[in-house]
Amino acid sequence: MTKKLITILILGACLVLLKPAIPEAVGNEKYSRIIWSYLETLCGFGPRNPGSEGYQETLELIRRVGKKYADRVVEQPFLVQVSEGKKIPMVNLELQFAGTEGGAPIVIGSHFDTRPFADQETDPEKQIKPILGANDGGSSTAVLLAMAHYLFQHPTPRPIHLVFFDGEDYGARGSGLNLLGSTHYAQDLLQVDRKSWPYWVLVIDMIGDKDLQIFKETHSLKGSSRFLDRIYSIAKKQNNSSFKSQSKYTIFDDHYPFYKMGIPATVLIDFDYPYWHTQEDTLDKCSPESMFSVFSVVTEAIQSFQVEN
Ligand SMILES: [Zn+2]
Question: Which architecture does CATH list for 25-304?
């Protein structure tokens, strides 16, 4: 081995050591810790299905974070008819950040409610109990809460509205009692001028899986391909191998009511999660690295949308 080759090899090794695994720009360790700590707090509240104690505590937490970091907190209460003669109150919470250039806002959404039952369990006793929803409801809510810290310190060109949707996971399949908060939010837009409709709606859901794989979702590809391209090219630049360029599922998540209205809407979700809608969807199935990697891609994406593009 020549001296020159040895030098090149040593230099190469140094470069590998110096290269950060995740971009320093967003202060990786700091935000990773914040995200994980919110997920622990949310799971500590227990199940967070509408009407539960954990649900109330979650609302209080989001309000506190909003009051501290957001420019404005908007509450959107609504009533849902869940059975004949029975209505229950629900609420979407929106943390608004003004942005430096104005223009139509980017909505980043996540449902904060958890499923009131575990329909993927085979044991009837387990089926009737509400789930903890560490990944389903918890992981994306934790990422959005950490994003409030980030946006307070790193304003984006466009306004950002972090929307915590209620009632995504409330009803049984086919009951029509799912996507309740996002449907209400989308219908409310019909009352306002189209100019103030969101520029883009980006929903995140179930992004805490240790083996994170985010395939391109069909509605997102149809309705928001330009935005999806941006997300995936940033993920590639960040060497994030969780973002898979193939398309896989067609998913009716909180992005769907916006997609139906013709608003560019994307969902980032890992639907290959064996603990989905079971009692096993617990904190130990989640990974801070997975959640941070989504946070990192999303924050870079929202910084890249200037008002003129
Ligand atoms: Zn769910």
Answer: 3-Layer(aba) Sandwich (3.40)
Q: Return the domain boundaries, the chain.
A: 25-304
Task: Say whether pLDDT at 40 is over 70.
Answer: yes
Residue 309 has pLDDT above 90, yes or no: no
CA neighbor of 254 nearest in space, from 302, 296, 216, 206? 206
Cα of 308 from ligand 1 centre, angstroms: 36
Q: How far is the CA of 167 from the centre of ligand 1 (A)?
A: 10
Q: How far is the CA of 184 from the centre of ligand 1 (A)?
A: 18
Q: Is 224 helix (H, G, I), strand (E, B) or coil?
A: helix
- How far is ligand 1, taken at its centre, from the CA of residue 180, in Å? 13
> 0.85 exceeded by the pTM?
yes
Q: From 38, 34, 50, 151, select the one nearest 92 (Cα to Cα).
A: 50
Of the listed ranges 27-36, 135-144, 215-224, the one predicted with least confidence: 27-36
pLDDT in tens, 97-106: 999 999 999 9
The three-state secondary structure class of 198 is coil
How far, in Å, is the centroid of ligand 1 from the Cα of 268?
14
Tell me, what DSSP letter sits at residue 270? Answer: -
Surrounding ion ligand 1 within 5 Å at CB are: 136, 169
> Ligand 1 centre and the CA of 169: distance in Å?
5
